[in-house]
Design goal:
425 residues; Aspartate Aminotransferase, domain 1; Aspartate Aminotransferase, domain 2; 2 domains; 7-stranded mixed beta sheet; 4-stranded mixed beta sheet; binds pyridoxal-5'-phosphate
């Protein structure tokens, strides 16, 4: 029995399903999850010492690669001075200033400890600011595990086939309406019906949690126009896209400005950080400058801030996003070619360093088309790649993440693994 399998048996006795987040389980692909003992650059190492090229990147945060020397250095520098004070620090001011400088629509920002917390807080802010209760989201978008957002959610909810979660009060879920992504007509219809009750529209500007699904040209701009027409706020959930598609996120990439932006993942450089920000007149409604309450004992934690700040500093350097884009392009173009040669039918979606190979022949533009994928075939592909030293997300409905640490050699090895694996499908 492998060490990972032993650890999983042990974990199942003390942790529900043996994992601390459902997406880590291998339920959709079969087999036991890989227990990780360490990571460096583009590689992770399992408890048995096996090396894998990692395209999960902790589900997004590790954009500069694992165990980056500059981030570790920044952590070492601050940790000797204490790990939490529950009082303001200069690091938090520095982080806020960096985010405001980088993200075009953000004039003020509040730190929290996870993406889920950022979204929950942003929704309360949108409701408090507009005095309205209803929320619109899109099928297959995942916005964390807050009650209001577990309606037609993607990611692990989708992977495990849980349409809605028990424990979410029907009265609350009833305030959330989920519409097809990339469908402006459905949105217009919803606003015509009850536009004066809708507090906000929340969207992943590029879906990362149903696999990578880009917005069709004009979709994000239409969201902006419709929200403005009805006085609703537009929230971009940039927990994945923030600092990934560009330093300023999807809003910089697509040049559409939301009212509120939620951030997470990359902003913490591998430590637990989330944030939400937006226009000053909105953000000033948050306590203590305004009446909308939101707080956090560990918010702006000095270790988390120092790792996040160093991460953003690396990402601010010239050429970073061109390099990420080029590496991901090489990989996806290569995969496409290898798949064609093997006669494997697949659809490739990619925006910058975010990508998915879908096992379908239907262009994937929304939840419905993503569901046309052959998930059994994906599972076989996943296991084959894992056996050949490539660690992909254990679900068809999750994106791949390229990092700055991935080399041409990594890409070549990945394509070789794919060529071998395709023969077995
Ligand atoms: C991961 C994710 C979240 C939730 O963030 P957590 O830190 O896991 O709570 C929210 N929104 C999006 C788009 C995400 O990808």
């Amino acid at each position: 029995m492998s060490k990972s399998a032993e650890l999983f048996e042990r974990a199942k006795k003390s942790i529900p399903g043996g994992v601390n987040s459902p997406v880590r389980a291998f339920r959709a692909v079969g087999g036991n999850p890989v227990f990780v003992s360490k990571a460096a650059g583009s590689k992770i190492y399992d408890a048995d010492g096996r090396e894998y090229i990692d395209y999960v990147g902790s589900w997004g945060p590790m954009i500069v690669g694992h165990a980056n020397a500059r981030i570790l250095g920044a952590l070492r520098k601050v940790m000797g001075d204490g790990t939490s004070f529950g009082a303001p620090t200069e690091l938090e001011v520095e982080m806020a200033e960096m985010v405001i400088k980088a993200v075009p629509s953000v004039e003020m920002v509040r730190m929290v400890s996870s993406g889920t917390e950022a979204v929950m807080s942003a929704l309360r802010l949108a409701r408090g600011f507009t005095g309205r209760d209803k929320i619109i989201k899109f099928d297959g978008c995942y916005h964390g595990h807050g009650d209001s957002m577990l309606v037609q959610a993607g990611s692990g909810v989708e992977t495990l086939g849980l349409p809605d979660s028990p424990g979410v009060p029907a009265a609350l879920a009833g305030l959330t309406r989920s519409l097809p992504y990339n469908d402006v007509t459905a949105l217009e219809h919803a606003f015509k019906e009850e536009g004066d009750k809708i507090a906000c529209v929340i969207v992943e500007p590029v879906i990362g949690n149903m696999g990578c699904i880009p917005p069709q040209p004009g979709f994000l701009q239409s969201l902006r126009t419709i929200c403005d027409k009805y006085g609703a706020l537009l929230i971009f959930d940039e927990v994945i896209t923030g600092f990934r598609l560009a330093l300023g996120g999807a809003q910089e990439y697509y040049k559409v400005m939301p009212d509120i932006t939620t951030m997470g993942k990359i902003i913490g450089g591998g430590l637990p950080v989330g944030a939400y920000g937006g226009r000053k007149e909105i953000m000033e409604k948050i306590a203590p400058s305004g009446p909308i309450y939101q707080a956090g004992t560990l918010s702006g934690n000095p270790l988390a801030m120092s790792a996040g700040i160093e991460n953003l500093k690396i990402l601010s350097e010239p050429g970073v996003y061109a390099k990420l884009d080029e590496s991901a392009r090489l990989l996806c173009d290569g995969m496409k070619k290898v798949a064609e040669e093997a006669g494997v039918k697949a659809v490739f979606n990619r925006v910058g360093s975010l990508f998915t190979m879908f096992f379908t022949e239907t262009p994937v533009t929304d939840y419905k088309t993503a569901k046309t994928c052959d998930t059994a075939r994906f599972a076989k592909f996943f296991i084959g790649m894992l056996e050949r030293g490539v660690y992909l997300a254990p679900s068809q409905f999750e994106a791949g993440f390229m990092s700055l640490a991935h080399s041409k050699d990594d890409v070549v090895k990945t394509l070789e693994a794919a060529r071998e694996t395709f023969k077995t499908l």
